[in-house]
Amino acid sequence: MEFANKEYFFLLLLLIPYILWYFLKRRRSEPTLKMSDTYAYQNAHRSWRVNLINAPMVLRCVTYILIVFILARPQTHNAWDEKNVEGIDIMLAIDVSTSMLAEDLQPNRMEAAKEVASEFISGRPNDNIGLTIFAGEAFTQCPMTTDHASLLSLLNNVRTDISARGLIQDGTAIGMGLANAVSRLKESKAKSKVVILLTDGSNNMGDISPLTAAQIAKSFGIRVYTIGVGTNKVARYPMPVAGGVQYINIPVEIDTKTLMDIASTTDGNFYRATNTAELKRIYKDIDKLEKTKMSVKSYSKRYEAYQPFALAAFICLLLEILLRMVVLRRLP
Q1: Which of 18, 46, 68, 137 has its CA 20 to 30 A from that of 239?
Q2: C-beta of residue 277 within 8 angstroms of C-beta of residue 228
Q3: Hey, how many other C-beta atoms are within 10 angstroms of the C-beta on 28?
Q4: Which of 271, 290, 94, 87 is nearest to 180 (CA)?
Q5: How big is the CA angle at 215 (ends 212 and 218), to the nearest 5 degrees?
Q6: What is the distance between the terminal CA atoms of the chain, rounded to a whole angstrom?
Q7: How confident is the model at residue 219 (pLDDT cuts 50, 70, 90)?
Q8: What are phi and psi of 89, to 5 degrees?
Q9: How far is CA 187 from CA 46, 145, 191, 193, in A?
Q10: 74-75 and 2-3: which strand pairing?
């Protein structure tokens, strides 16, 4: 919390003369009675009201302090914040073709990929991370950002049946997916620029070949880590039929050579994930990448936070009035 008008705190200095005046005035105004000896009164019972005699003054001072705090405009500590952190620029390129519905990874390849990618993003809070999705064509789901909450929301909104419903052309355009990710990284000033490309098939669509996209990535100093996901032989696949779903076994056709060539061309690594546990291990390996310093500028709104101070001031004022007018009321 911070205060927009800190100069109002100088008003607190007025409490010093007020407190001095209060005790001097109270000493002069208290009635006195001269006695030769006070021995008879030393064990006299002291009324509880006497212990509260200064309570109204204390409450009055607290009320005044709270009012000064309100005038100083307390605000939540939200503003532009620029700082240097350790991180890298990463683009995730994820295959969303219909074959990603295969259930050799649980619950299926697409959901497993999203779950593991979400954990990876959450574990790298200082990195610029973006998301490209591709099937027969490619587009950017989220540009690079340090706002990982928005990125995770967009990642979770990627439907597993996006290709099956015709929202994106089906197929596997690895070259287009990689090229799209590279286009988001080419202007980056970071020392480490990385694409993590995940697919379960071989390139059969698109105007750019995977190796051409790899050469483009290399020219911009971008390393590509490729992940081939799926079992080694056949995978259980849900085939829609009239009135329901029929499961069939489809062959797993991953072009490991192309993925290895992409990785070697860009000084990256190729990984093979046949189950969710292996996929998590692969992301942990990639998590050990070199880091570089970057400047991060974030913004969040300021909100006025005077309400608790106003409520406390009202309660103190009410208690002071009740004590002075009821409990400690003096009769003439």
Answers
A1: 137
A2: no
A3: 7
A4: 94
A5: 155
A6: 48
A7: very high
A8: -100, 125
A9: 81, 14, 12, 10
A10: antiparallel
**Contact in structure between 180 and 133 (CB atoms under 8 Å):** no
d(CA 223, CA 192) in angstroms, rounded, equals 8
- Structure tokens given for 74: 């307390």
In the chain, what is the greatest distance between 2 CA atoms, to the nearest angstrom? 114
Give the tokens for residue 323: 């004590």
Of the candidates 93, 205, 196, 83, the one whose C-alpha atom is nearest the C-alpha of residue 139 is 93
pTM comes to 0.63
Q: Do residues 178 and 195 make contact, with C-beta atoms less than 8 angstroms apart?
A: yes
Confirm if 145 and 151 have CB atoms less than 8 A apart: yes
Residue 322, pLDDT score: 87
φ/ψ of residue 257, rounded to 5:
-65, -45
Q: Looking at the predicted structure, is the pLDDT value of residue 85 above 90?
A: no
For the cut 90, the answer to whether the pLDDT of residue 93 exceeds it is yes
3-state secondary structure string, the chain? CEECCHHHHHHHHHHHHHHHHHHHHHHHHCCCCCCCCCHHHCCCCCCHHHHCCCHHHHHHHHHHHHHHHHHCCEECCCCCEEEEEEECEEEEEEECCHHHHCCCCCCCHHHHHHHHHHHHHHCCCCCEEEEEEECCCEEEEEEEECCHHHHHHHHHCCCCCCCCCCCCCCCCCHHHHHHHHHHHHCCCCCCCEEEEEEECCCCCCCCCCHHHHHHHHHHCCEEEEEEEECCCCEEEEEEEECCEEEEEEEECCCCHHHHHHHHHHCCCCEEEECCHHHHHHHHHHHCCCCCEEEEEEECCCCCECCHHHHHHHHHHHHHHHHHHHHHCCCCC
Q: Please give the structure tokens belonging to residue 134.
A: 């591709």
